[in-house]
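Please review this one.

:::
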Amino acid sequence: MAKKKQKYYVVWNGRVPGVYSSWNECLKQVNGFTKPVFKSFTNRAIAEKAFKDAPDKYMGDYYVEPGTLGKITNPNSEKIIRKALAVDAACSGNPGPLEYQGVDVGTRKRIFHQGPFPLGTVNIGEFLALVHGLAYLKQIGSDMPIYSDSKTAISWVNRKAIKTNLARNAKTEELFKLVDRALIWIKSNSWNNPILKWETAEWGEIPADFGRK
């Protein structure tokens, strides 16, 4: 089994802001905290610098950590369509602080990013990411495929309905407004983009993965 890469977690807004070398320590600072701001890095020096800077510089849609692009090297990678969009969500606890993003499979460039939201579930995040991706591709006139590693999100989009136990309240209202908009969009629009299941067991983590596992 391949050794997991070391991650460094910058917490700009949390119980005790700082740079943490384990996800569990980071989670203690952000889980349940109102509007946490945090991000993972693979390089300690970059993480230390990021902590001293404003988080907006590192949370923008097009920020990619230096040295993390690279090529897909999985032996089964010939099956992967490079001209495609990949989407994924990250939830610090379930429910917990939630964010999602879309990444170009071929270039690994981040195309969009939303969050973190104070409270959400990974299924809702995966669903919103998928609908956001479909809307983005339609807006630019592209029929390229879109990858998701979530069977639940794909089924919700196909059924044009969601099923969640997350309560709608003041803490989740912003997120549910996005869900409302997403449901309206998929019910009133059509698309030609194939929605494809990313086969994590064969190909490794989806390119849009946040790397927090």
